[in-house]
Amino acid sequence: MRMYDLIMKKRNGESLTREEIQFMIREYVADNIPDYQMSAFLMAVYFQGMSEEETLAMTQEVAHSGEMVDLTAIQGVTVDKHSTGGVGDKTSLIIGPIVAACDVKVAKMSGRGLGHTGGTVDKLESIPGFQTTLTRESFFDVVNKVGFSIIGQSGNLAPADKKLYALRDVTATVDSIPLIAVSVMSKKLAAGNDCILLDVKTGSGAFMKTVEDAITLAKEMVAIGENAGRKTVALITDMDIPLGHNIGNSLEVIEAVDTLRGHGPADLTEVCVDLAANMLFLGGKGSLTKCKTMVREVIDSGEAFNRLVAMVEAQGGDSAVILDTDKFAKAPYAHEVKALKTGYITSMDTESCGIVSFMLGAGRETKDSEIDYSAGLILHKKVGDFVKEGDSLATMYASREELFPEAKKRYEKAVRIEDDREDEKPLVYARVTKDGIERLA
Ligand code: URA
Predict the structure, then answer these.
(1) Which are the contacts of 274, defined by CB distance < 8 A and separation ≥ 6?
(2) What is the pLDDT of residue 155?
(3) What sign results for the dihedral spanned by CA atoms 20, 23, 27, 32?
(4) In what order do the strands lie in the sheet with 343-348?
(5) What whole-number distance in Å separates Cα of residue 51 and Cα of residue 42?
(6) CA 184 / ligand 1 centre spacing (Å)
(7) What is d(CA 259, CA 135) in angstroms, rounded to the nearest whole number?
(8) Which residues is 387 bridged to in the sheet?
(9) Please, are residues 324 and 374 in contact by the beta-carbon 8 Å criterion?
(10) Is-catalytic flag, 162?
(11) Which of 75, 79, 86, 396 has the fewest Cβ atoms nearer than 10 Å?
(12) What is Dmax (Cα atoms) for the chain?
């Protein structure tokens, strides 16, 4: 078999067989296929796409390039949740404890921040002492005792994806729907959960800028999951506005705690209730309506919050900051961004909001740079709100005052204020299952 022939086949719009895909991935990981040939193949996929059989075969091959996590030591059904990335997306910190409190297990491996989007592992590491690296035995132990655990993704999970992603990043082939589907689902299959809930974001802060693209990606990922024997559902959720009010690592943990205590922002609470209910549905807990009721009950009773405290303690974290979030270390400097005119906020460039948080120190410049856990911003006004000139739009937090002027300029540009109010956008657009698409808005 020759890589040259496989590139030509894809370039001409034909489908590769499972054996051909197996050969290509294995030889690429073994460094027997050079990057320039793989780049040509990826670009051919970008233009020609892939069939359902091809994406399944490629996902399974990429998943099997590293460790296939065996979760059989965990008692009960395990359900994973994956978000395609957003700004202010702290849903994993809220949903994990809720689902655990309803008796479905969550054994989650999460990533670090990527570009303008934050990562759950970075958020958790803002809790003093919290360990995101556990042995497999300790990980299973925490899940069995508390009901959920979140750790960092092991370096050996789908290593072929790491190599392919790095190549896509420099060859303008990241935004290919089949390649994103393969990349996300290979890691999900390798992580070993019985069921997978996908939170596919759409809007200015997401990879998928339109609802229709998000649905196409969701359909491909659901098909891969189901064909690989995992129960899979996707929700298409809005990322045209940051989720909740807080952006930045410890600021997001604080907002997650507020939400679990029943007084979080309405948008964040609604999305979390929907996501958690769908995870319970996948976990066999009954109809969606029944699952939603269960979710609200464990928030109201405080049981979901108790699970977060228990998980933090089980992973070496100082639960004092969860029990009283005023104890989180504060950024030494704060700066208000004020409205430049009077009117209604009609849009917020969500990607820019993520970049502002990054500029304040909440993200990494390079893979190895340090994060400022207390840096970020709190949004006081969002789309639909009326503001008067001079009203505070947001408060920015940083450890160095000189970071404010540039960040402020960027934030002012990201927020559009106009005379007329725009219609509110839905938070959840659609639900995609193996049976089809249910439009919710
Ligand atoms: N997230 C991933 O894990 N992979 C992609 O290709 C895009 C987003």
Answers:
(1) 235, 237, 292, 427, 428
(2) 78
(3) negative
(4) 386-387, 343-348, 415-418
(5) 14
(6) 5
(7) 30
(8) 343
(9) no
(10) no
(11) 75
(12) 68
Token pair for 395: 């408060």
8 A C-beta contact, residue 339 and residue 390:
yes
User: CA of 395: how far to CAs of 32, 114, 151, 324, 408, in Å?
Assistant: 52, 23, 31, 21, 10
In contact, 269 and 258? CB cutoff 8 Å: no
Task: Specify the amino acid at residue 197.
Answer: L
Strand bridging mode 195-202 / 231-238: parallel
The structure tokens listed for 235 are 């929700």
Q: pLDDT tens per residue, the chain (441 residues)?
A: 999 999 999 999 999 999 999 999 999 999 999 999 999 999 999 999 999 999 999 999 999 999 999 999 999 999 999 998 788 889 999 999 999 999 999 999 987 766 666 789 999 999 999 999 999 999 999 999 999 999 998 779 999 999 999 899 889 998 899 999 999 999 999 999 999 999 999 998 788 999 999 999 999 999 999 999 999 999 999 999 999 999 999 999 999 999 999 999 999 999 999 999 999 999 999 999 999 999 999 999 999 999 999 999 999 999 999 999 999 999 999 999 999 999 999 999 998 999 999 999 998 777 677 889 999 999 999 999 999 999 999 999 999 999 999 999 999 999 999 999 988 889 999 999 999 999 998
Q: Which candidate in 81, 168, 201, 307 is catalytic?
A: 168
243 alpha carbon – ligand 1 mean position (Å): 20
Q: What is the DSSP letter of 424?
A: P
Where do we find the tokens 């091809």? 54
The number of the ligand 1 atom at minimal distance from the alpha carbon of 168 is 6
In DSSP terms, 437 is beta-bridged to 432
In 3D space, the residue among 265, 192, 277 whose CA is nearest the CA of residue 228 turns out to be: 192
Beta strand segments in 49-127, E: 79-83, 106-110
Which amino acid residue places its CA nearest to atom 2 of ligand 1? Answer: 184
Question: Is the CB of residue 30 less than 8 Å from the CB of residue 3?
Answer: no
Q: Match 């104890």 to its residue by tokens.
A: 327
Q: Which helix (H) or strand (E) holds 393?
A: strand 392-398
